[in-house]
Amino acid sequence: xxxxxxxxxxxxxxxxxxxxxxxxxxxxxxxxxxxxxxxxxxxxxxxxxxxxxxxxxxxxxxxxxxxxxxxxxxxxxxxxxxxxxxxxxxxxxxxxxxxxxxxxxxxxxxxxxxxxxxx
Length: 119
Description:
Blueprint: H1 2-32, H2 34-37, H3 43-63, H4 73-89, H5 91-102
Helix pairs in contact: 1-3, 3-4
């Protein structure tokens, strides 16, 4: 009985530590490629990389906030904010690339009307 109670209490803690280690290793791998991501030619690929980087960093912060190991959350937040700025700067070029790839022309609706001023 005591063994089952201990297993029920200790098992989630051990599984949480293992998932934090995996998340940490995944984020570290993406972080090592961060500088090289600026040299990616395709805006869509670069946007995708920044999206995965932000998602993995946010997941690490969310799941491992109660982990007894010390994470430097301010540094992670600073990195994620910089990646988000880079990602949002790519939106227009990603849209234009998708237009070229999929042969789509933007819909422009121009309506000319006379302006009438009343005094």
